[in-house]
Write a structure and sequence with these properties.
The protein has 357 residues and is an alpha/beta fold. It contains twelve helices and 14 strands. It folds into two domains: 194 residues, 3-Layer(aba) Sandwich (Isopropylmalate Dehydrogenase); 140 residues, Isopropylmalate Dehydrogenase (3-Layer(aba) Sandwich). The protein binds 3-isopropylmalic acid and magnesium ion (MG). 3-isopropylmalic acid binds next to helix 4.
C-alpha cells in the first residue's frame, strides 16, 4: 500500500491541504485507491511544537513515504527568528534531503477562467506551459552563506553564491526534454548567460543534451526577456527549463496568467519517481483561518501525485476534470471571483470537487 505523508504547515496550508485530503479520501472510500495517510509537522508549526522547522521525525517519515503532500510554510510570526530556525529553511532542507531536484510547475488556463486573468482573453487563450525548475541547487544552496563583517573595513556584507555543476544541469535538462517530447516538443531554456558564468555553462549543457532529443526544438532566452515574453505572448511557450531562483520568480509570474496563484500545483521529483507535492502559493497569513483560501492548487497537487508517484494517470485526470467542471459550473473562491460566478469558501470548493468526482 502506498504511503503518503501529509505536512500541512502554516497559514492557509492546513486549510487547503484539508480539502486535498478530502479528495484523496473520496477516492479511497470509493475503492479507487488504497492509501496509508500519515501526518507530521513542518515550518513554523514545527518550530512552535519542536523548536525545529524540520524535526527528525518529520524528515524520517518523509524519507520512508512514497509521496509527500505539503501545504505551505512561513508567516510574520517567524520572520525575525534566527535564519536556520525559519520555516522556509525546513522546506529547503526537506527538498534537499529528499533530492527532489526536478520541480514541475504547470500553468494551464481553464477556459472558464479566461476572464479571471489580468491579461486580455486573446493573450492567455490556449495557455498550457510547464516550468521545469531546478530545485536543489543554484543560489538557494550556495556555500558558504551569511551576513558577515568584511576584514578590510568592518562593513557588513550579505554573501550568497550561485553554483551549478554540469551533472545538475544535465539531469534537469533531461527531465525537461523527456517531458517536452510527450507535449508540443519545444524547450525554452532560461538563463542570464550574458552576465553569469553559471548560465554560460547551463546553455552549453542544454545544447549538448538537446542532441539526444532530435524531435525537440531548443531555444534560449535571457531571464529578463523571458519575463517580458511570458506577459507579451505566453502561448509561445511549451516547456521552460531554468534554475532555482529564475524558476521561483517566473512561476509566480506564470501563475497570474491563469487567473490566480491559488490554482497552480507543483511536483518535485527525485530520480526514482518519488515526489513532494505542493501548491506553488505561500502561507498567505493575511487570509489564513478565514476559510476563503483557494484549495484548487492543493487539490491539483494531489492529481500530480496520482500521476507521477502513484502511477494512477486515470485518477489524476478524474481529479483534474472534476476541478474543471466545478469551475465551469461557476464556483469561485474570492481570488478568482472577479464578480463572476458564485463566490464560495475553501470548504465548499473542496466539497464541490468531491461531488464532481
Ligand atoms: C516556492 C516558495 C519557496 C521557494 C519559499 C517558501 C522558500 O516561494 O516554492 O516557490 O522560494 O522555493
Ligand atoms: Mg516561490
Amino acid at each position: 500500500m502506498a504511503k503518503v505523508l501529509v505536512l500541512p504547515g502554516d497559514g492557509i496550508g492546513p486549510e487547503v491541504v484539508g480539502e486535498a485530503i478530502r479528495v484523496l479520501e473520496a477516492l479511497r472510500s470509493s475503492g479507487a485507491i488504497d492509501l496509508d495517510l500519515e501526518f507530521a509537522d513542518i515550518g513554523g508549526a514545527a518550530v512552535d511544537a519542536h523548536g525545529n522547522p524540520l524535526p527528525d521525525a518529520s524528515l524520517a517519515a518523509a524519507m520512508s513515504a512514497d509521496a509527500i503532500l505539503l501545504g505551505a510554510v512561513g508567516g510574520p510570526k517567524w520572520e525575525n527568528i534566527d535564519r536556520p530556525l525559519r520555516p522556509e529553511q525546513g522546506l529547503l532542507r526537506l527538498r534537499s534531503e529528499l533530492g527532489v531536484f526536478a520541480n514541475l510547475r504547470p500553468a494551464v488556463l481553464y477556459p472558464s477562467l479566461a476572464g479571471a486573468s489580468t491579461l486580455r482573453r486573446e493573450v492567455v487563450a490556449n495557455l498550457d506551459l510547464l516550468i521545469v525548475r531546478e530545485l536543489t541547487g543554484g543560489i538557494y544552496f550556495g556555500q558558504p552563506r551569511g551576513i558577515r563583517e568584511r576584514t578590510q573595513d568592518g562593513e557588513r556584507e550579505g554573501f550568497n553564491t550561485m553554483v551549478y555543476r554540469e551533472s545538475e544541469i544535465e539531469r534537469i535538462c533531461r527531465v525537461a526534454f523527456g517531458i517536452a517530447s510527450g507535449r508540443a516538443r519545444r524547450v525554452c531554456s532560461v538563463d542570464k548567460a550574458n552576465v553569469l558564468e553559471t548560465s554560460e555553462l547551463w546553455r552549453e549543457v542544454a545544447e549538448r543534451v538537446s542532441g539526444d532529443y532530435p524531435d525537440v526544438t531548443l531555444s534560449h532566452l535571457y531571464v529578463d526577456n523571458a519575463a517580458m515574453q511570458l506577459v507579451r505572448a505566453p502561448s509561445q511557450f511549451d516547456v521552460v527549463v531554468t534554475g532555482n531562483l529564475f524558476g521561483d520568480i517566473l512561476s509566480d509570474l506564470a501563475s497570474m496568467l491563469t487567473g490566480s496563484i491559488g490554482l497552480l500545483p507543483s511536483a518535485s521529483m527525485d530520480e526514482s519517481g518519488k515526489g513532494l507535492y505542493e501548491p506553488i502559493h505561500g502561507a498567505a497569513p493575511d487570509i489564513a483561518g478565514k476559510g476563503v483560501a483557494n484549495p484548487l492548487a492543493a487539490i491539483l497537487s494531489v492529481a500530480m501525485m496520482l500521476r507521477h508517484s502513484l502511477g494512477r494517470e486515470e485518477l489524476a485526470r478524474r481529479v483534474e476534470e472534476a476541478v474543471g467542471s466545478v469551475l465551469k459550473r461557476g464556483l469561485r473562491t474570492p481570488d478568482i471571483g472577479g464578480g463572476e460566478g458564485e463566490t464560495v469558501g475553501t470548504r465548499r470548493m473542496g466539497e464541490a470537487v468531491c461531488e464532481a468526482l
